[in-house]
Amino acid sequence: MQILAVPNWSFGRNRALQHQFEELLSAKSQVVAEPGEGTTYVSSGLKIHFCQGDVDHNRTVTAFSGESSLVFSTILELASVCLDTIDLTRHVGVHPRIGGLDVCPFVPLEGTPGDIAELILGVENFAKQLADRYELPVFLYEKSEKGRHESDLPSLRKGGFGGLLDRELRPDYGPICAHPRLGATIVGVRDFLIAMNANFRGEDLTSVKRIAQKIRQMRQEGDPRFLGVRALGLPLASRNEVQVSMNLTLPDLTPIDPILEEVQDLATGFNCPLSEFELIGVIRRRDLEHATMIPFKKEQVIE
Q1: Phi and psi at residue 5, in whole multiples of 5°?
Q2: Host H or E run for residue 233
Q3: Are strands 185-189 and 138-140 parallel, antiparallel or unpaired?
Q4: 194-302, which class in CATH?
Q5: Conformational region of residue 199, where left means phi above 0, alpha means psi within -120 to 50, and beta covers everything else
Q6: How is the chain split into domains, by residue range?
Q7: I need a labelling partner for 64 at 20 to 30 A (CA). Which of 50, 94, 191, 266 fits?
Q8: Which tens digit of pLDDT belongs to each residue from 167-219?
Q9: What long-range pairs does 264-269 form, CB within 8 A, spacing at least 24?
Q10: Burial of 2 (0-12, 13-18, 19+ CB in 10 A)
Q11: Left if phi > 0, otherwise alpha if psi is -120 to 50, otherwise beta: which for 147?
């Protein structure tokens, strides 16, 4: 079964680790020659859509797709590259997080309901492997959650890494105490979402927080443009900029352009000059018709 994974890792300032990730993913996606009569070229089947670290977030987002077994094994290989070096007790970054591998969603790209059920079982097996290998509490979320705790990401992240320490946890796998360096990890099958940022020049954090608050208010009031839209206002000190970071959890109902138009109008009212819009991760081809304001690379587009 073809699936998309978007693991989010709590490092963004270690260029050596970033390079190792890029090399590992590149090797996984190379076309190789099979020995025998004549030469047959076969692909590993892994498609790399995104691998980018951010200094201010201190976070690296990866996105790749392929057969589920290859995707699971690749994540475990990436974990072996970085988890020994991540220490959340020393981690500083603007993005909310509770783990070294903070969140790892899996999105089915094909399949019947029976296939989805099989994927959920595969994700549970992956979560158990991760928990056992690193003595790490692992929480299932979204479609994988089984009623033991909250199922949504913001609720599971509430309190951050520090909020995990010195209390008993109720993970689906692994110990009931947070890992002292790596915290806990959230994994699960979820629907497709779009992650994007609006960045503004200057250091007016108050204004972008108000914009994010306004977005959340419009979502709660049922504004059809903002159904399922999550938003945070964040500083980008290394760039002398500020950011409205957004997740579109219902992209079939909320096209991108009207959201960005409203964010830009709100920012103009606060005298925040636009720097750029950013797409983080992937976008579906069918979303592009109403996403004319945000740049993307061809590898970020999935069918």
Answers
A1: -120, 145
A2: strand 229-236
A3: parallel
A4: alpha beta
A5: beta
A6: 2-189, 194-302
A7: 94
A8: 999 999 999 999 999 999 999 999 999 999 999 999 999 999 999 999 999 99
A9: 264/198, 266/211, 266/214, 267/198, 267/200, 267/207, 267/208, 267/211
A10: middle
A11: left
Q: What is the distance between the alpha carbons of residues 15 and 13, in angstroms, rounded to a whole number?
A: 6
Nearest to 231 by CA among 254, 239, 50: 254
Please provide residue 64's backbone torsions phi and psi, each rounded to the nearest 5 degrees.
-155, 160
Backbone angles phi, psi at 122, to 5 degrees: -65, -40
CA 155, 97, 67, 49 torsion-angle sign = positive
- pTM for the model: 0.93
Residue at token pair 């806990």: 184
> What is the predicted pLDDT for the residue at 250?
97
pLDDT per residue as tens digits for the range 73-108: 999 999 999 999 999 999 999 999 999 999 999 999
Q: State the angle between helix axes of 15-29 and 68-82 in degrees (0 to 180), rounded to the nearest 10.
A: 160
Amino acid of residue 241: E
Q: Which two tokens stand for residue 36?
A: 């025998």
Q: 173 to each of 27, 79, 131, how far by Cα in Å?
A: 31, 17, 6
d(CA 88, CA 100): 7
> Which segments of 177-220 does DSSP mark as H helices, in order?
205-220
Cα 278 to Cα 202: distance, rounded to the nearest angstrom: 17
Distance of CA 138 to the CA centre of its chain: 16
Q: Round to whole Å and give the CA distance between 284 and 272.
A: 30
CA-based torsion, 160, 9, 133, 87: positive or negative: negative
2-189 homologous superfamily:
Formiminotransferase, N-terminal subdomain (3.30.990.10)
7 and 86 in contact (C-beta within 8 Å)?
A: no
**Distance separating alpha carbons of residues 165 and 180, to the nearest angstrom:** 8
